[in-house]
Amino acid sequence: MSQEELDLAKHIRGIICGVDEAGRGPLFGDVVAAAVILDPKQPIQGLGDSKKLTEKVREKLYDQIYQQAISVGVGRASVEEIDQLNILHASMLAMQRAVENLSLVPDLALIDGNRCPKLSCLSEAIVQGDAKVASIGAASIIAKVTRDREMIEWHSQYPYYGLDRHKGYPTQAHIQALEEHGVSPQHRRSFAPVRRLIGT
Fold it and tell me: Cα separation of 64 and 58, whole Å?
């Protein structure tokens, strides 16, 4: 736990979880969120913003978090929910589900970003929290590795999009593949590049 988390834990005398999501920007697939309650007796070195870590380091930390954390919860919002609600509200829903999937009910949830989902516990938003708070960094890693692995699985079904490389983000190669092969059921129709291709 970071010093900030230890101070908060003393202040509220309870269980703190960190929450983050992965997959707001991609054109393809679910948005995935994670909630992590770290064990202060088993600190994990190297936690931080998952986007700034190499894939190899993320994979190693992913395993370590699952082995040493008190609880890990993963939640998601589907492509249909993203298109229905918009990506911001879908991300909040995924975070809410991640916290609900913890084996313990936290007293405080620290959320990466500038707003909090509706939760049954207290919550606090921390901008760039994944770089400041260990449990949010852990949640960032779990969410990203979970989603990246899913993109590899989807790649076997849709090999022509290049999901194994760009993980669904709107790269030039992805846009070109969409123009050549059309839109799959897993593409977010509410996102401009996809919406433009299907003419709605």
Answer: 10
Cβ proximity of 112 and 19 under 8 Å: yes
Q: CA–CA separation, 105 vs 93, rounded Å? A: 17
One-letter amino acid at 107 equals D
Give residue 194's identity as a one-letter amino acid code.
V
Domains and CATH numbers, the chain: 3-150 (3.30.420.10)
> Tokens 């978090």 label which residue?
65
Task: Please tell me the distance from the alpha carbon of residue 151 to that of residue 195, in angstroms, as a whole number.
Answer: 21
Question: Measured between alpha carbons, how far is 172 from 188 in angstroms, rounded to an integer?
Answer: 17
Q: What angle do CA 83, 84, 89 make, to 5 degrees?
A: 90
CA-to-CA distance for 33 and 5, rounded, in angstroms? 20
Average pLDDT per 10 consecutive residues for the chain, totaling 200 residues? 56 85 98 97 89 93 97 98 98 98 96 96 94 95 97 96 96 95 96 87
